[in-house]
Amino acid sequence: MATRSSVAAFNNGWTRDQPTFDMPETESAETALLIYDGDCAFCLWWARYWQRGSAGRLRIAPYQQVANDYPHIAVQEFSRAAQYIGAEGGRSSAAEASLRAASAARGKGIWLSAYRLVPGFASLAERIYALIARHRSVFYAITLALWGRQPEPPRFDLVCELFLRALGLSYVAAFASFAVQALGLIGSDGILPVGDHLARIAARYGAAAYLRYPTVFWLNASDFALQAVSWGGAAIALLLVFDARPGAGWRRPLLLLMLFALYLSLFHAGQVFMIYQWDLLLLETGFLALFLPSGSVLAVCLLRWLLFRFMFLSGVVKLASGDASWADLTVLTRYFETQPLPTPLAWYAHQLPDTVLIAAAGAMFAIELVLPFFIFLPRRPRFLAAWSFIAFQLAIIATGNYGFFNLLTIALCLLLFDDQAIGKWLPRKWRGARTKRTPSALATGVIAVYGVVVVLAGSGQIHAAATRNEPPVLLARLAELAAPLRTINTYGAFAEIITERQEIVVEGSLDGQTWREYTFKYKPDDVAGAPGFNVPHQPRLDWQMWFAALGNESRNWFPDFLQRLLAASSDTERDVLALLANDPFAGAKPKAVRAVIYEYRFASPEQRALGLWWERRQTGLYYPAMTAQPAGQNAPAGSTLIDSIVRPR
Question: Structural domain boundaries of the chain?
């Protein structure tokens, strides 16, 4: 049993908004009463915790002060176990009393229901209570380690407010980044015009196409519509970021719904340029965020489940891939050099000793495979997971350019905190304006039903990733039903790490003899060109060039890209050229274009001292010379695009 000195120490450590003990006058008081052992710091901590979460439905008092008011209860009963006096006069003790006190807080009644309805649960609960009662000092120390010294039930109003604004910033980055590339990628003069794409879908699926590929571009697929959706989405996202009246009625849900619908439209229109995991993560996050304005804690739980799936799957797919470099932790000796768009700091990370890189890989696995389970633990372990995830994302940002991916992940990490943890860091007007939102029974029911679907489908994805087998049929069907809206997705990047960096260099010629290079804005070209920082912008053509160099299927877009270069001049079809860093022909149309494959490596420290960032050597021809003819007539007769590629050595 805890001593009086430990209780005094607890009281001295709790100075903010100290509650006074509620002294009952009769058993028929309007609120329930929990009577605990006043000499037990553990009992005092939990009594205050439950009282503060009860919204005035629970009073607390030490039996040393109120025992005389209840002469029908023996003093030995008070000292043996907590006593709960209901508003109607009923009495419970021990585990049942604790669960009834906990049930006074919204969302905690499930344990009391289990006590009363689940066979064997009551007996187990009483045994656990007896164990804790015999070792209160130990469990008090555990309580402080897991929850902290202040018995403050968690609230998430400020956290949700901050998260929604961070989500708005992610939407701003995503929409604006795509807006400046949209015409060159999928405009009428772009690489893969969205109008042609939708026409093919309609021809294949008929009326079902509208349900399989929901997008506003079915109404209008013009360049104006493309720009209106992209920039309009960015403007709406700014409204979400700077919304001065949080939680006001229908406004927030409407903004979130519009953002989700517009980005889903771009996703289905973007084709190969919109297939990235951060696009899927943004859609799933944006859809779940629709539930947050309801005030339901279940919405926070679903977003935490999403973060768990994302982080845990990232580790699972690496181990399940069979790539030896993950197993022996040598992966980082190659990763910084071969990742899609490294930053300048990636060169320095690549120079670190192998022992440091191996240790960093081990830490990465701890973050991705162990710490995700801390998401479901009390606040202090959960905070540890949050800070570790955030530090991990910042390290990735420092060494690689992944668009808004890491910023969105950090936004999700905010939901692992609570108002008490972050309140002191937020503007005073936010802290003063928060209001307790009570979700309706309908909203809670809808979120709970959808939550069951999400958890089941997500569990099937984790099982499939870990075993490299198909998920159970029912769980796969759930994910399939959500596919058009992209609200239940699977994650896990870089399951396998390539050993050599291959880069496609596109060349053009005015005479078919002398070739000049087109340079890209972000991917490596010139060996003296320094890698850059472009977060949160994602140059989608540069990324696709990295995938194409791996030998992945690119016949659906690469020939069209070359055709646009052949047709582009200073007067016409400039949208594709705008995606590149330079036009080597100053507005003149080239006679022919081709693609050559090079192997790139980071420059050595000696070469770096001379101003070089890369060294490269040509290893083959990626695409043969193409002249200004209709797409499909430039590959060698009887061959496909992939047949014409000389595989890099």
Answer: 4-147, 157-485, 501-644
